[in-house]
Specification:
This protein has one domain. The chain is globular and about 45 Å long. It is α+β, with helices and mostly antiparallel strands. It has 10 helices and 6 strands. The chain has a 4-stranded mixed β-sheet with strand order 2-1-6-4. A two-stranded antiparallel ribbon has the order 3-5. Helix 2 packs across helix 4, helix 5 runs antiparallel to helix 7 and helix 6 packs across helix 7. Keywords: Signal.
């Protein structure tokens, strides 16, 4: 009897979870897909495949910018990041991000949030608590991952306007006016 459980345990632990294999890009009625391996190869060689060249051209991206996006590693300490993602603000962040990045053809926010959390933590764990976009995609727990480019564009515009607002208040224009130091 114990032998059965040992075999089941070995089979269970021996299975390797695969990450994303295909990236689907959506922008309105436009949709294209590319294999994660093509992106990974481009990151290593800086030479895009023909399909990637076409995607770069269609999306108006530049090869250097895309390479920089794929290569940029950020520190992602697992313990701190896990606590943050499981906090209330982390849950809000993940639910908003899950509108941009989610399993292809699945729009369940809770499931998407868990997949994001998993991809980030596993990707960080596999790479000494640093992660880049390729690491994340390879750790994402679904074969097909979707990026909604419209939602990404809207979010980036909000971030830019928020950044401008922060810079505006950081420059303290009202304090300068009050103190009589304004150049106007």
């Amino acid at each position: 009897m114990k032998f059965k459980y040992i075999i089941l345990l070995i089979l269970f632990l021996n299975q390797s979870a695969k990450g994303a294999e295909n990236l689907f890009l959506y922008k309105g009625t436009f949709s294209r897909s590319i294999r994660i391996e093509e992106l990974s190869k481009f990151k290593l060689t800086k030479k895009p495949s023909n399909k990637l060249k076409n995607l770069i051209k269609i999306t108006g991206q530049k090869e250097k910018n895309l390479h920089k996006i794929l290569s940029t590693k950020i520190e992602f300490p697992i313990k701190t990041s896990s606590k943050l993602m499981n906090s209330r603000i982390g849950e809000v962040f993940l639910s908003r991000l899950s509108k941009i990045i989610h399993p292809n053809k699945i729009s369940n926010i809770k499931l998407s949030s868990k997949a994001l959390r998993s991809g980030l933590l596993i990707g960080s764990f596999n790479n000494n608590q640093k992660i880049n976009l390729i690491d994340f995609l390879k750790a994402y727990p679904n074969k097909n991952i979707a990026f909604d480019l419209n939602a990404l564009s809207k979010t980036l515009k909000k971030v830019d306007s928020l950044k401008e607002l922060i810079e505006f208040y950081a420059d303290s224009p009202f304090k300068k006016l009050k103190d009589g130091r304004s150049s106007t």
